[in-house]
Each structure stands twice: as C-alpha cells, then as structure tokens.
Specification:
By secondary structure, this protein is α/β, with parallel strands linked by helices. The protein has 11 helices and 7 strands. A 7-stranded mixed beta sheet has the order 3-2-1-4-5-7-6, with helices on both faces. Helix 7 runs antiparallel to helix 11, helix 9 packs across helix 10 and helix 10 packs antiparallel against helix 11.
C-alpha cells in the first residue's frame, strides 16, 4: 500500500482531532468564509476545519487520503445536518478528477504538508483554485519550540532514517521553500503572505494521558514507539514526550491539558 496512505490510516486520528475542535473553529473564523463560497479542505481529516467552514454556509468538499477519516467526516456532517459538506478520498499530490479552477478557496491545515511531492501539491492546489481565489495553508515549523514540531522531532530521533529522496513535511514550514513551490506553480512571491499563528489543542485529561493517546492512535507517534520498542528505547521516548507535553501545558485545571502550538499560516492569492 501507498506508505503515505498507510501512515494516516493507522491508529485513529479522530482521537487527536477531537482535541482540535476549538482550534479549528478559531482558525476558520479568520478566513472570511462566506455563504455559497466553494471551499476545498485538503487533508481535511474528519473535518476539524471543513465542518466550521460548512457551518458558515460554504459549499465544502473535504479531500483526504485516509478512507476511515473520510468516512468519519461524512458521518459528522450527516449528524450535524450539513448537506453542504461532503468528504471524499483523494491525494493532494494528484487531485485527479477534480476540475481546474473549481474552488474560491482551498484550505489545508496541517494536511497537504504531509503529502509527498511538494511541488506537485502546490501545482494541484493552484490548478483547482479559480483565478482571483486563494489558498490558505497551516504548516508546522521545523525546530519551533512548541508542541507538534518538537513531537515530530523527538519521534524522528527514534525512527529509522527515511528512504533516500524523502522530503520532510516540515519543509512546508520554511517560507523560502513554500515560495519556491508556489513559484514553480506560477504564483509570484508578491502574491504569498506568511504569518505566525497559534493553534490550541484541548484535551480532557492530564498531559501523560494525552501522550498515551498519541502513542496509541497517532500514526507517526505509533511508528516511533514501534521502532523504539524494537531498539529497547520505548521508555526513553515515553519520558521525553511526557516532559514535552507537561512543559507545554497551559491549563490551570490538573485534569485537563491545553497546549498552544505555533504554525506558519500561508496565504496565496491565485493569479
Ligand atoms: C495532522 S492531520 C490534520 C487533519 C485536519 N486538517 C485537522 O486539522 O484535523 C493530517 C491529515 O492529512 C491527511 N493526508 C496526509 N497525506 C495526504 C495526501 N497525500 N493527500 C490528502 N490528504 C493527506 C491525513 O490523512 C490527515 O487527515
């Protein structure tokens, strides 16, 4: 199976997504989504941002490589009576079957950054956006001191090196690389803006319990624990992650965890 798809079908990302609802809503509130707008949410998961977009009246298509997440998204939209929000399987590196210029807005929050072939991803996002429309990406930033960058950094120290030619998803958090990718897709640097933003994860348990959810349900962390178990270092990984989550937790309630994480918000005006 496609390793990118296998990674995101592993475990159950909906467990992590459940901690991202307020963050997703806060982010969508900044996007000027309006009634009737045609929005593609790419790498949508179970609809953390797609559902809030649809609640604002947009016509939303969620696209994700993971079949269980697409099913979970469609279930959530149905339960909420959102007939203007559908989810389908697709690969950000090749949006075959999706017509050129068919969306006013393409949103990808911590989604398309995980697809292989980043130049193809930029090309596809530009292709499906109408001229005058826009693309908004949320991308984690390499070496940032906050949660997700550190989680991925620690995890990678326990996993075998990736295959030759692998491009780290974190390169989407480097402004120069983002500009180069969209430049190759025909968008000049003046049409791209960058901002640092914050996404808050809210979990109804202690930081150690939150780590356990990542260990048990989040594909990249599950892989790190599998590799660390083989090398006899699982306890070290557990300890490093518990320290990280504990130190990032801002909740005053000992039974809850609230962790703000910094990301790069990229806005592209499609010519
Ligand atoms: C960290 S999750 C974020 C999900 C969602 N945007 C959210 O904020 O909850 C990354 C998502 O990207 C999806 N993804 C990874 N590679 C992809 C690809 N090549 N094409 C489309 N989606 C992809 C995964 O299946 C997963 O749902």
């Amino acid at each position: 199976m496609n390793p990118n798809k296998a990674l995101w079908e592993k475990g159950d990302f909906t467990r992590i997504a459940a901690t991202m609802r307020e963050g997703g809503q806060a982010l969508v509130d900044k996007l000027a989504v309006t009634r009737g707008m045609r929005v593609m949410d790419l790498g949508c998961g179970d609809g953390t941002t797609a559902i809030p977009e649809a609640k604002l009246g947009a016509q939303v298509l969620g696209v994700d490589i993971s079949s269980p997440l697409v099913a979970a998204g469609n279930r959530r939209a149905k339960e909420m009576g959102l007939s203007n929000c559908t989810f389908q399987e697709g690969d950000a590196s090749n949006l075959a079957g999706i017509e050129d210029r068919s969306f006013d807005l393409v949103v990808s929050i911590f989604g398309a950054m995980f697809a292989p072939k980043p130049f193809d991803v930029a090309k596809e996002m530009v292709r499906v956006t109408r001229p005058g429309g826009s693309i908004v990406m949320g991308n984690w930033i390499p070496n940032d001191p906050t949660l997700v960058a550190q989680l991925l950094k620690i995890s990678s120290a326990y996993t075998p090196p990736p295959p030759e030619g692998f491009v780290s998803p974190m390169t989407w958090g480097v402004e120069g690389q983002v500009a180069e990718r969209f430049g190759a897709a025909g968008v000049s640097a003046q049409k791209i803006t960058f901002a640092r933003d914050t996404f808050v994860f809210n979990f109804g348990g202690t930081p150690a319990m939150f780590v356990a959810d990542f260990r048990d349900y989040y594909g990249p962390t599950m892989n790190a624990f599998e590799a660390a178990t083989k090398s006899g270092r699982a306890a070290d990984l557990q300890r490093e992650l518990e320290q990280l989550f504990q130190s990032q937790n801002k909740s005053q309630d000992p039974g809850r965890t609230s962790i703000p994480a910094t990301f790069l918000r990229v806005t592209v005006q499609v010519p």
